[in-house]
Design a protein that fits this description.
The chain is α+β, with helices and mostly antiparallel strands. The protein has 17 helices and 23 strands. The chain binds iron/sulfur cluster.
Amino acid sequence: MPLRITKPAPYHRIKPDDDCMHEECGVFGIVSNDESIDPAEATYYGLFALQHRGQESAGIAVSSNNKIDYHKDMGLISEVFKGGLDNLAGATSAIGHVRYSTTGDSHLANAQPLVIQSRKGSLALVHNGNLINAKEIRDDLESQGAIFQTTIDTEIIASLIAKNTNGDIISGIKKTMEIVKGSYALVIMTPDKIIGVRDPKGIRPIALGKIDNSYVLASESCAFDTIGAEFMRDLRPGEIIEIDKNGLKSHQGPRADETALCIFEYVYFARPDSDIDGICVHRAREMAGAQLAISNPIEADIVAGVPDSARPAAMGYAEQSGIPYKKALAKNRYVGRTFIQPAQGKRAVGVSLKLNALKRNVRGNRVILVDDSIVRGTTSKRIVEMIKLAGAKEVHMQISSPPIKHPCYFGIDTASHDQLIGEKNSVEEIRKLIGADSLNYLSIEDLLKTVEGAACNFCVGCFNGEYPDNVDHLIKCRTKNVLD
Ligand code: SF4
């Protein structure tokens, strides 16, 4: 019996207002050719490893006996599957998803996997990324009589694949890839196979792994380690990988002139224990810290990183500069990303709940504080204040990426562009606003040095406004909304 979606979520999760860039989603998929590997269980643990990519909703779809069942709900993996996996056990393949919404509202109807039934068969799909021509395609499909159940662009992809498939789903996917523009890493499941797809520019990552005789797909290689799978390789931009009982087949979809992997995967989003397109994320962050120390040497007593994502960069800075690395901030590990946000006037409480200064380490010291990025600046201001109140003589902020001056249209929530502190303020103005004694950012050139040798070129659109696709129509739309 197909699983039913459980009761509607009793509340809408509050969007985390933690002054960070947010990834949209994590995807996972497996076809099991080993009796010892239960696809639903492997997907559940794989999604745990990808939880940092989305915390609003989660879901798993499985295929067994030529039928697709699923369970999805609002919340973390642990919450969504607190009742166990019994109803999904015994399948031959599975796909899963964790979501942070950037298009479409945060509610259950928009949770994934998206499962559709058409006269051509059933299909489940999970997606990480954002289409930049979703509205045009949706208008076009609606004018032809299509009805959509959700507000997510993933449904547009599913609808196009169903429409373009006449027996051979790979041709249907290729035709769909000619129509959709933007970023997408997809895992598609039919009753007898799963298919991984990476957009032609490679903006979002997706990797292939193997465990015993079974193949696995995941947004990041850290998910393979969690289930004991071996990382084989990243999908190439525009590649389609078809996995079934007989093994895997690679197909080439449309090719782009230039590839453009999102460089923010290395700066902040991806887990440090992942490798993406030939580059170890942790190593790239260490090198970013070392580049900062080379480009802007500062006299200080200690180097510290804002937990957790800036620690590797702080360690790289310390190693390069010879200044000792010490912790300046302690993190409350039990504050999730979704607590009730204090009212505007008490916003500082939100930061203090998560971080506190280590007085013993900072008192009387000149502190170099490394962070990966500044989005609105509210958190940086509070952290500088906190460390100074704890007795630091000076606080020098070092940011291991360039100023974020432009919004992202490719699946990353950058806050609305009028809130980006880097958009209208010079570095000196930002320094004054956050109260630091000095402020230095990594240049785009130095950031690119940290990922030299990667299999892809990079998107750095949020730093320089040069995007991998033409987004003029979206910029106009966004500007209009702000002015409205
Ligand atoms: S604009 Fe920035 S966040 Fe968006 S894909 Fe490009 S590098 Fe990544």
